[in-house]
Amino acid sequence: MNNNIINVAIDGPAGAGKSTISRAAAKTVGFIYVDTGALYRTVGVNALRKGIDTKDKPAVAATLSDISVDLVFENGEQKVLLNGEDVSAEIRTPPASMAASDVSAVPEVRAFLFDLQRDIARRNNCIMDGRDIGTVVLPDAKVKIFLTASPESRATRRYKELIEKGTQVEYKDVLEDLIQRDYNDSHREIAPLKPAEDGVIVDTTNLNLEESINEIIRIIREAI
Ligand code: DC
Question: Which of 42, 112, 209, 217 has the fewest CB atoms inside 10 Å of its own CB, making it the most exposed?
Fold first, then answer.
């Protein structure tokens, strides 16, 4: 273990701005940014491709025996590989989001992705975002932040992102999906979404993007 390595854990519900804020903050402080949701999305996409019901836990667990999931970093940008294939775009669709939430409740999936996350954090100064980073994956992280916002403001952001990408969606479906995912993610038995006891809660409902990024950078700089 290299004691000079600094890890920042950022957890929170879907659409709180974790990835945008973490990516920008990581660039400013010179750390890599690791988006762990991409890993669960990749396992979800693999199950969808195979036509498996993503709520069928044993069937999802069985898909793990013949897949590899890897993260690579090119010019600081993360790419996620499924059996060597770059699936970074395919994992961003609404069905992939819901599949990710389903498969993330499968203990075998969480165990399968655990070492990969830990190994990256052991070797790199990083900001890692997810749902259980401060509580389970990196309980010794130097900084732990729980980033949240009201469901409506999160749904509005997510809706705009999807429309900008050309995805046809309705606001009410985005809001419903998000509430459903929040429920799934925070009520599952294993590693549920919740703030770490020794973490800081940041609510971005009334902050714009720049203010949110600055607040996260301030918390990180103060701690390191
Ligand atoms: O952050 P995201 O929306 O890309 O995550 C997709 C899903 O993956 C989310 O609904 C819950 C799950 N997830 C998780 O259980 N643990 C993590 N560390 C990251 C994501």
Answer: 209
Closest atom of ligand 1 to CA, residue 104: 15
Quote the pLDDT of residue 2: 59
Q: Report the helix count and the strand count for the chain, using DSSP H and E.
A: 8, 8
- Which of the 8 DSSP states describes residue 136? I
- The maximal CA–CA distance of the chain, rounded, in angstroms, is 48
CB atoms within 10 A of CB 26: 24
Residues 6+ apart with CB under 8 A from 136: 191
**Cβ atoms of 136 and 17 closer than 8 Å:** no
Q: What is the dihedral of CA 138, 139, 143, 146, to 10 degrees?
A: 90
Over the chain (224 residues), the average pLDDT of each successive run of 10 is: 85 93 96 97 98 98 97 91 97 94 96 97 97 97 97 94 92 95 93 95 95 97 94
Q: What order do you get walking across the sheet with 77-82 strand by strand?
A: 69-74, 77-82, 85-86
- pLDDT for the residue numbered 75: 82
